[in-house]
Amino acid sequence: MNPVEDHLDVGLQIVFIGFNPSLKSGEEGHHYANPRNNFWRILEKSGLTPRLYEAAEDGELLKLGYGFTNIVARPTRAAEEITREEYNRGREELRVKLERFRPKIACFVGKGVYTEFSRRGQADWGFQTGAAPVVDGVREFVAPSSSGLVRMPMEEIIGIYRRLACEIQEQPDEEAAGFAEE
């Protein structure tokens, strides 16, 4: 199965970073394609997107200033199947991507994604302020996983993502300003 293509560009507001694609995402070729994954519903309900997008539209979110990548490219049934070697290689590849594309915010979709990348033992929800970011100039935001297996109440998850929406609406660039006014 092929990896799911990154959607990255210079100057993005946010790059969403997952562990790795699900098998369904690998089959479909789009991020967060598993119908049990709540990612697209969370984006809409938090105010990050003006409507409910489908996984097949993931590339369209570049127009909103949002990109997608993963710490590991290989699709698996569960994150537990990712090897230590894949994490080590993926951590370096992700650092290079963030240095090259320089998004304003790297949003880690799950605490485990962030701790694997940063090699820090813990993280709080939201912006990470206790230490310097791994990539200078890229703010780090930790959000709950959007997996349907997450036990956190959906309203609490949406509330954390809403903090991200509020932040980018407070400091818009030209493209995001157009979205905020819609």
Automatic annotation (TrEMBL):
Gene3D superfamilies: Uracil-DNA glycosylase-like domain. Transmembrane segments: none annotated. One of its GO terms (biological process) is base-excision repair, AP site formation. GO terms for molecular function: pyrimidine-specific mismatch base pair DNA N-glycosylase activity; uracil DNA N-glycosylase activity. Keywords: DNA damage, DNA repair, Hydrolase. Residues 8-153 form the Uracil-DNA glycosylase-like domain. CDD domains: UDG-F2_TDG_MUG. It comes from the Bacteria. PANTHER family: G/T AND G/U MISMATCH-SPECIFIC DNA GLYCOSYLASE, G_T MISMATCH-SPECIFIC THYMINE DNA GLYCOSYLASE. This is DNA glycosylase. It comes from Paenibacillus stellifer.
